[in-house]
Design a protein that fits this description.
Layout lengths: L2 H4 L4 E2 L3 E5 L5 H8 L2 H4 L10 H16 L4 E7 L2 E12 L4 E8 L8 H16 L4 E4 L6 H9 L3 E12 L4 E11 L3
Parallel strand pairs: 5-6
Antiparallel strand pairs: 1-2, 2-3, 3-4, 4-5, 6-8, 7-8
Helix pairs in contact: 2-4
Length: 182
């Protein structure tokens, strides 16, 4: 899994380019993260300004350089429209967690299914990861559908598992998992 931090190449699909996050992406990141519908299931409030987005991109890039999290831009028609993240690395179990967010203007087009599927293929081809996990909230029907379309199976439901900074309460999350076929 270490290779993801040292040799993560761009991924191209029929419609998308998945590439490293760049400083200039803060403008599109703001458009995504400032939309209340998009962040509704992220346990965070909408992003208040482009300046906050600029700092977030800087923090995302530092997180990659410090080998903590990987965030990749999803580019469609020369515009960043979403993010795929790889995080919660467990080197003993050889597992990673996958997360994703998409600009609301691009919902329902199969873009996230295409992006997430290509990232999973890349992880399985380029690393020794055996388990890929996603943890959508039970109300997040769109993310649940993506998980199912890309081959993750529901294996659990955690009650009051993640703190929501908007409601200041704990939210449930589902656990979806894909295991490498050995």
């Amino acid at each position: 899994m270490e290779r993801l931090f040292t040799n993560f190449k761009e991924i191209e699909t029929d419609r998308l380019l998945i590439r490293e996050l760049r400083d200039i992406d803060y403008i599109d990141l703001y458009e995504i993260f400032s939309n209340e519908d998009v962040v509704r299931f992220q346990q965070i409030p909408p992003m208040p300004s482009k300046e906050v987005a600029k700092q977030a991109v800087s923090n995302f890039i530092k997180g990659y350089q410090q080998k903590q999290k990987i965030r990749r831009s999803i580019i469609y028609k020369d515009k960043m429209i979403g993010i795929v993240s790889i995080h919660s690395f467990n080197y003993d179990e050889k597992s990673v967690e996958l997360g994703f967010m998409l600009n609301k203007d691009n919902w329902g087009l199969g873009i996230m299914t295409e992006a997430a599927s290509s990232v999973i293929d890349y992880i399985l081809k380029e690393t020794d990861a055996n388990i890929i996990i996603a943890k959508p909230r039970p109300e997040n029907i769109g993310s649940i559908k993506v998980c199912e379309k890309i081959g993750l199976k529901r294996i659990g439901h955690q009650e009051k598992a993640i703190f929501n900074f908007v409601t200041e309460e704990y939210d449930d999350q589902l656990i979806y998992q894909l295991e490498r076929n050995n």
